Amino acid sequence: MHPSQSELLKLKNLGLASVNILHSIGIRTCDDLRRVGPVEAFTSIRGRGINASRVLLYALQGALLDVHWNDLDPDLKRRLANEADQMLARQDQN
């Protein structure tokens, strides 16, 4: 296992499948995920044709906050979803 893979696997909410998906969009470390942010990471994943649900979006945010995705504040989830929807709509226009 690559060291960066194990680093990401230590984050809450992320398993091997999620880490492999993150690697496919160039996110290899916790710092990469922090720099890109959960919304951009999620929309990049979706932009590659990977069918990811909003749970992944919430899991990415929870990983950065060290919180289980289901324990995120509902308002935060709503804001994340709205931001992701807007970014995906812009991607669809291009």
From TrEMBL:
| Organism the protein comes from | Microbulbifer yueqingensis
Q: List, alphabetically, the InterPro entries matched.
A: TfoX-like (IPR047525), TfoX_C (IPR007077)
> Where's the TfoX C-terminal domain?
5-83
> Hey, what's the signal peptide range on this chain?
none
**UniProt protein name:** DNA transformation protein
